[in-house]
């Protein structure tokens, strides 16, 4: 789960991580009021969306008068921001973050994340922070420093100093960096975050370290244990279909293709999508209906797939282990009738009572094609999508 920058900075403050003075606003007038309350002669107006690359897309703008704060706010609010990390539709801008401008001496990159390879928390830092950190990691990886934190020992002062020296910090700045790193470490553990990123972490002309930006990702499997984090969820920033899928216990991810896929089991779903690609097609989604598939779930899965106007054919691949294939076949038939499926549907059933399930589909008189071989089913659904 993602949260907005202004929410992440609120958490940063709770854990002793220094951030710029600022407040969120949801109307141009509110933004202007925030600027007046902050004082000074310059402010940054930042669109609040769950995507990076805002600066290059016009979602971060420097205002040097109250009128510019109002103008920029009116230009952003109510619009959709398209960045390199969104699709062509972009994300809605419903809130802004207004902050004071600080004179920047240096920009750094700093993040803490759960490293699945080593099963440890990993700190990553670079003296080359800012908007092009991805290019730095790709072209000059030697400029990136990483440190694994042993779970028994926790974050040690010498590790903080190692990163501070790599960033060419000195004196009180080293202590300030340790405070920031300890705050990140404690926040990640306390709230079950999977990643905390500060890009950039700035050194001001006055020698102060500030988290100019803030991004936190939380473990979806643990967020239910943190009601305060769950309250920060913004469904408007999430894919509508993916959001609805969660309500029915379905794992759904929107993709760009034309072939809807419904499978039970994540590994089988990946294999199914690979076969679709191998035959020249493109999946419209990843959809795992789970091992305990029910007719009701099948119906909701159909509705999700068909809500995507790009879908030209559907491939259903169910392996009946715990669940019986004839029960799933009845669910498929009921769903097809309920949602009035007009695109061709190829169904591959295998496992418990598979033959009975296939017979039910064959005798239905509906626009369904029952197959026993997955490779054949994948090739057929691609051909049907191309014909459509």
Describe the structure.
The protein has helices at 5-14, 28-38, 66-76, 133-139, 157-166, 172-190, 227-230, 240-247, 266-278, 295-306, 325-339, 354-362, 374-387, and strands at 22-25, 43-47, 60-63, 80-81, 91-92, 96-100, 104-115, 120-126, 144-149, 193-204, 209-211, 215-218, 251-254, 259-263, 285-288, 313-320, 345-351, 368-371. By secondary structure, the protein is α+β, with helices and mostly antiparallel strands. The chain folds into 3 domains: 1-20 and 102-237, 2-Layer Sandwich (D-amino Acid Aminotransferase, Chain A, domain 1); 21-101, Dna Ligase, domain 1 (2-Layer Sandwich); 239-387, 3-Layer(aba) Sandwich (Rossmann fold). Strands 7, 8, 9, 10, 11 and 12 form a 6-stranded antiparallel β-sheet that branches. Strands 1-6-2-3 form a 4-stranded antiparallel β-sheet, with helices on one face. Helix 2 (28-38) runs antiparallel to helix 3 (66-76), helix 5 crosses helix 6 and helix 10 (295-306) packs across helix 11 (325-339). The two termini are 37 Å apart. The relative contact order is 0.10.
